[in-house]
């Protein structure tokens, strides 16, 4: 079998790496970047820290700050307008998954015609991503989505009432500046849910259909790092080792996800669109149920995940696979994450609509066990 593989972008990693942003902009020949962020990042003072670094190096820049709850088409379109009005020649997205995804959307539409919906991966929209795009730098302030090392972004299509995943290799940020110091003041709840998102990327990528041993290795590493450091980071946000290792776990999980994801992500995307559940929180609740669903199809992979989380290797693959589910549930519980959808505001009356929305999401196509409407419905009812 012939397969093509690729590896993530250049990553500048370490405590204090934020100071390297001007140098890396110069390497990209960007003279006037648009800073893309959300109101939460600005209020936390992180945008101000970036602006101070740029001002000290006399780097001219413009700012696009939004207050929407997640990446929306209208948000991206406003960002594109800001990019053009300010005469920018590159993008620096700072924040969690949402600002980095918005930055990717701005980057795409700065060089390609609208509507954004036509680039949906479920409709092979990647075929339309052909034009050279402006350079983009991603500066993550959470350790979860890994969007700084990913080739895709998620966007809400308001008129269609659904979310789309836009995937193309050209969307990989030109460089990621990963400074663990930017995560030190992240609240425990956000630390937990974003960390569970990193874990979900790694677990689902490991189990996804297809052949990609490099992604598998990254996934195993990401799982091990989450097992060893997520709860520590939740309990002590100033644990420098835990924060740094969770940022590595986030990068590893996102890089592994180039292999594919699974049912948990399709359901999580639906939960965000229909019920307004933040993505990391949705993943935290749904992941163990999706793992249970996949036991019969992915036991060897789940057994490998269990060993990465600390289980003693044995010949009993099925037992190890079940232990992986129990380990993930225990990790979420120790991190203070809710266990059921009813605990995060989902209504039973929404389950049918959530099933329909999840079925439209392309993530489940890589799930090791095929997912029909009845399967996704059963998963949602089990998690409820």
Question: What is the strand and helix layout of this fold?
Answer:
Elements: E1 10-13, H1 21-27, E2 33-38, H2 39-43, H3 46-56, E3 62-66, H4 73-85, E4 90-95, H5 97-109, E5 136-140, E6 152-157, E7 162-167, E8 175-178, H6 188-207, H7 213-235, H8 240-256, H9 263-275, H10 279-293, H11 295-308, H12 317-334, H13 351-360, H14 373-383
Parallel strand pairs: 1-8, 2-3, 2-4, 4-5, 5-8
Antiparallel strand pairs: 6-7
Q: What key attributes describe this structure?
A:
384 residues; alpha/beta; Rossmann fold; Dehydroquinate synthase-like, alpha domain; 2 domains; 6-stranded parallel sheet; two-stranded antiparallel sheet; 14 helices; globular
For the termini, the CA-CA separation is 41 Å
Tell me which CATH architecture of the largest domain applies here. Answer: Up-down Bundle
Q: Compute the gyration radius: what is it?
A: 20 Å
- Mean pLDDT level: 94
Strand order of the largest sheet: 1-8-5-4-2-3
Total strands: 8
**Helical segment tally?**
14
Helix content: 40-55%
CATH domain topology of the largest domain: Dehydroquinate synthase-like, alpha domain
Tell me the β content.
5-15%
Number of domains: 2
CATH H-level superfamily of the largest domain: Dehydroquinate synthase-like - alpha domain
Structural class: alpha/beta
């Amino acid at each position: 079998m012939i397969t093509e593989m690729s590896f993530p972008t250049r990553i500048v990693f370490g405590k204090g790496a934020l100071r390297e942003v001007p140098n890396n902009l110069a390497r990209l020949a960007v003279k006037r970047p648009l800073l893309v962020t959300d109101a939460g990042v600005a209020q936390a003072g992180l945008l101000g820290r970036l602006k101070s670094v740029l001002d000290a190096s006399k780097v001219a820049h413009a700012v696009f700050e939004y207050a929407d709850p997640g990446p929306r088409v209208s948000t991206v379109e406003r960002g594109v307008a800001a990019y053009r009005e300010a005469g920018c020649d590159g993008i620096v997205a700072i924040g969690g998954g949402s600002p980095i995804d918005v930055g990717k959307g701005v980057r795409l539409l700065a060089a390609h015609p609208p509507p954004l919906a036509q680039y949906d991966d479920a409709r092979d929209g990647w075929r339309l991503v052909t034009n050279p795009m402006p350079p983009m730098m991603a500066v993550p302030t959470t350790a979860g989505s890994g969007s700084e090392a990913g080739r895709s972004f998620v966007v809400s299509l308001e008129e269609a009432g659904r979310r789309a995943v836009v995937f193309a290799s050209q969307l990989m940020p030109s460089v990621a500046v990963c400074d663990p110091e930017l995560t030190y003041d992240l609240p425990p709840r956000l630390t937990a849910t974003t960390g569970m998102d990193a874990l979900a990327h790694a677990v689902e990528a490991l189990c996804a259909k297809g052949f990609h041993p490099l992604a598998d290795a990254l996934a195993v590493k990401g799982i091990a790092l989450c097992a060893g450091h997520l709860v520590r980071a939740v309990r002590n946000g100033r644990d420098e080792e835990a924060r740094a290792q969770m940022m590595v776990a986030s990068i590893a999980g996102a890089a592994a996800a180039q292999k594919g994801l699974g049912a948990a992500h399709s359901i999580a995307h639906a939960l965000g669109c229909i019920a307004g559940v933040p993505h990391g929180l949705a993943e935290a609740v749904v992941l163990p149920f999706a793992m249970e669903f996949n036991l019969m199809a992915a036991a060897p992979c789940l057994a490998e995940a269990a060993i990465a989380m600390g289980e003693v290797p044995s010949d009993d693959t099925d037992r190890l696979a079940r232990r992986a589910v129990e380990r993930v549930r225990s990790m979420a519980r120790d991190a203070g994450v809710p266990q059921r959808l009813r605990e995060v505001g989902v209504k039973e009356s929404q389950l049918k609509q959530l099933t329909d929305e999840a079925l439209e999401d392309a993530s489940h196509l890589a799930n090791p066990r095929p997912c029909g409407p009845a399967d996704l419905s059963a998963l949602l009812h089990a998690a409820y």
